[in-house]
From TrEMBL:
Protein's UniProt keywords contain Transcription: yes
Record-annotated HTH marR-type domain positions: 16-157
Keywords: DNA-binding, Transcription, Transcription regulation
Protein name as catalogued: Winged helix-turn-helix transcriptional regulator
Entry keyword annotation includes DNA-binding: yes
SUPFAM superfamilies (UniProt xref): Winged helix' DNA-binding domain (SSF46785)
Organism for this UniProt entry: Nocardioides malaquae
Gene3D superfamilies: Winged helix-like DNA-binding domain superfamily/Winged helix DNA-binding domain
């Protein structure tokens, strides 16, 4: 797309419009990819449950309230999602050793193995699809994407994002 003249507000607006469009494409593609990944983990796994399972596997064990806070879900949605994961034998409920009244959600060994396998599949596909990118371009993209995500995080925290 090239550099934008800082004095050319119309040019910058066009670039920002293109950014919004490309992020929209990325989000639609990500939704489709999540559905595919979910079925690779388990044929009956739905995308929302896949995302929650990823968090549980990443953290080892979590409380349902942590899941709710992380994804901005209500208790009912978390409860249904967790039950789905339990029914598929991907998550188990355990007593919290620090507070016996509380319950922790933990991945089953099968879930961890399925998710590890998926990481290898994802990484191989990513290497294949980005094989034509040189190391410098890839590193610059990763750096800029990180900057973009940080900027969005700051906007979210200020409560002004629309």
């Amino acid at each position: 797309m090239g550099d934008v003249d800082p004095d050319d507000q119309a040019g910058r607006d066009r670039v920002l419009e293109t950014l919004e469009r490309e992020v929209g494409v990325l989000m639609r593609r990500a939704r489709r990819v999540m559905a595919v990944r979910a079925t690779l983990v388990h044929p009956e796994l739905v995308p929302t449950s896949y995302i929650v399972l990823g968090l549980i596997c990443e953290r080892g064990s979590v409380r349902a309230s942590e899941v709710a806070g992380c994804f901005d879900l209500d208790k009912g949605a978390v409860s249904r999602t967790v039950q789905h994961l339990v029914d598929l034998d991907l998550v188990e409920r355990r007593s919290d050793p620090d507070d016996r009244r509380a319950t922790l959600l933990a991945p089953t060994p099968d879930a961890l193995e399925r998710m590890r396998h998926l990481v290898h599949v994802r990484r191989a596909r990513l290497k294949e699809r980005l094989g034509g990118w040189d190391d410098e371009s890839l590193a610059a993209f990763v750096r800029d994407l990180g900057r973009y995500n940080l900027a969005l995080e700051e906007i979210e925290e200020s409560g002004t994002d629309a």
